[in-house]
Hints:
Largest sheet: 3 strands, antiparallel
Shape: globular
Amino acid sequence: MRFNHMFSFNRAIISLAIFSTVARMYFFFNFQKESSSLAPDEGTYASLSSWVSQGLQTESFQGYDESFYLSIRGFILPASMLVRAGMDPLDSVRLISSIFGLMASLLLGYVILKVKNEMNSLSLDHRKYHILLLSCYVVYLFLPSHFLWSVLGLRESATEFLVMVCILSITNLLRYQEVNYVRNLFLFSIGIFYLFSVRPQIGWITSLSVLGGTIFLSKKRLKFISCTIVLVSVALGHAASLGFSTQDRLTITSNEILGIYETNEQGEEIFLAVPECIQNEAVKVGGSEFMCEALTETRAVNAKNFLTGISSEFASLDRKKTVNSLEAQSAIPLIGCPLKEGSRTSEVLCLVWRTPYNGFTVLFRPLFPGDFTSGPSRLAGIENLGWLGMILFMIYLISQKSISARSKQLVPSSCFFVLFTLGAAAYEGNMGTAFRHKSLVLPTVLLMIILLWESSSRFKRAKK
Length: 464
């Protein structure tokens, strides 16, 4: 009887994965062949894929600077290869998005089957735990908005898959320590490096979450190796997100040009402007002739001092939040601050003051039955009831006081959830983009629920 139940559970997981694959294929072949109004960015990504496939310079793409391409290169390059092979640009970004979404769903299915097999060793009612695992998998696969973002031509599914690889790898390392540790180290190092070429901001959050997990490794040698690999992966990923380009510049060969000046009627010395020059031709400046030659310069794109970069990004959060809310029907209102804004300190304190409200807005708004601004926001409001239920259920599991020493496995996923929520609270300017970006934390929320339930089950077993 128990064998039949286990077989039925495995078959259910496999059937759900197959159904999800078929649904993705149906969507790909039957959805409208133009950029969706729900995700206008996919039109931009499709155009960029076509642009790159033609070998054109990315810094001259539709008014964007090269840092835009570098921040999404890991998603655009595979799509551009499909365009070069003859596929429509919009279809190419949608196919790459669906492939990443499919890999993420298969990865979670594999994890659920593995956790289920381990939990079968506990002498508890397996049916409740199996129902929980199946429910988590169904929610992940078919939560309408989450499914939609993973099949449209957006980088959300690629980002989510890489986040899952990193978080699950460090969780496995915490769970099994030195069992298959080389594989886990390799996976989260590749995941961190790749994330910086898909969505660099999430690369930083994921890196900090993985680094937080390494602190709780019990083996000192493994802890040192893991921390080193994280830091190296961050350095390499950040360097890759900068990129380098070469540029030819025509210049005067002689340094004497710097000392040529003339005196005006007032007796003031004015340095002479260098005229445009043509390669290998002489140019006259102040009665003297100089030769022009081409010099090749190599420069880092978007390079800046690390601490200066963090400071400038932090200082620009309010400005970016305002830009994100412009002309948005679902703009997140800016609540008042008891401090007088103007100085850097007061701006930071006001940001902290608004974080609880903005964090709640990012996670749960628009909230059913009101708070709607459009048709899609009504569907979002209904979905957010599910998000509210998941968070409340997670809080309930934590309140059971059954968190054991094994719960250090929760550190990476909980760190990611908290850091993402804080970052989104500071950055998001409207509920629409917040609702879309929020799908990134769905797998970590589900993983926390599964681990908390497992911890609770082990605690109950120990009390018997």
